[in-house]
Amino acid sequence: MLLALFPVFSRKRTPDEEQIFRFIYKCFGYKPKNLEIFRRALTHKSISNNSEEASNERLEFLGDAILDAVVAEYLFNRFPNEDEGYLTKIKSKIVSRRTLSLIGSEMEISKILRYNKGRSIKLETIEGNAFEALIGAVYLDGGYTSAKTSINSHIFRKYVDLNHILEEEIDFKSRLFIWSQKNRLPLRFEVLEERNDGSAWLYLVCVMINDQEYGRGSGSSKKKAEQAAAKETLELVGEL
């Protein structure tokens, strides 16, 4: 009865907890519940080795797996016509050490990361590792859906320039898909002819944009013909 008469107040956050809460909400778009998990995610082994505290290495392992799964699903849905090799190549760039370190640096994780500043430590590396650990913490605290929403709706939009990553690909087909997506134009490759003269196959492919034919290309494989057609199309639309 007394509980009904008097409101129950939650414990006020300490300044350290408030800093962690604000950082996670700002950088991940997620409101953490169990701040102890996030404190652990921000604890480097250079600190934990000298105390009884656990480091963020186990959370980093978990976050790496969650990030891998979310990015794979995102690319699977984003590029329904691309094969496994293409998706793997793009995924490897998004989850590379270089990209994760850049994300960690942009978030300025080092400002809140607990590590031994007296030791010689490569800061960009531990920032990238801490970023993965924080993904693991979001997963443990809020579940897979929370982690997926944070990555897709916040981190991708704020810290990952996917178009720039795609533009680094040297193949003409990828560049043409980027151009069509930017201009919101439907694009497909159509095989006009495939024949074997007895010694080799020859493919003739054209590019269809908004149901209008653009470039054509031929080659000894479908992929080579598509590359040639994509190159001619890029020239026609002024992208080469």
What would you note in describing this structure?
With about 240 residues, this protein is mainly α. The chain has two domains: about 15-170, Ribonuclease iii, N-terminal Endonuclease Domain, Chain A; about 170-235, 2-Layer Sandwich (Double Stranded RNA Binding Domain). The chain is about 60% helix and about 10% strand. The chain is built from twelve helices and three strands, in the order H-H-H-H-H-H-H-H-H-H-H-E-E-E-H. The chain has helices spanning about 1-5, 15-30, 35-40, 45-50, 55-80, 85-95, 95-105, 125-140, 145-160, 160-165, 170-180, 220-235; strands at about 185-195, 200-210, 210-220. A three-stranded antiparallel β-sheet has the order 1-2-3, covered by helices on one side. A hairpin with a 4-residue loop joins strand 1 and strand 2 (about 200-210). Helix 7 (about 95-105) crosses helix 8 (about 125-140) and helix 11 (about 170-180) crosses helix 12 (about 220-235). The radius of gyration is 24 Å and the shape is elongated. Mean pLDDT is about 85; it is low at about 1-10.
**Which structural class should the secondary elements be placed in?**
mainly alpha
What Rg is obtained from the alpha carbons, in whole angstroms? 24 Å
Profile the largest sheet: 3 strands, antiparallel
Strand content: 5-15%
Report how far apart the termini are.
76 Å
The number of distinct β-strands equals: 3
- Tell me the helix content: 55-70%
Mean pLDDT: 87
Number of helices: 12
The best one-word shape is: elongated
Count the domains.
Answer: 2
Write out the CATH superfamily name of the largest domain. Ribonuclease III domain
Task: Encode the helix/strand succession as letters.
Answer: HHHHHHHHHHHEEEH
Q: Spans with pLDDT under 50 lasting ≥5 residues? A: 1-9
Sheet with most strands: strand arrangement: 1-2-3
- And the CATH topology of the largest domain? Ribonuclease iii, N-terminal Endonuclease Domain, Chain A
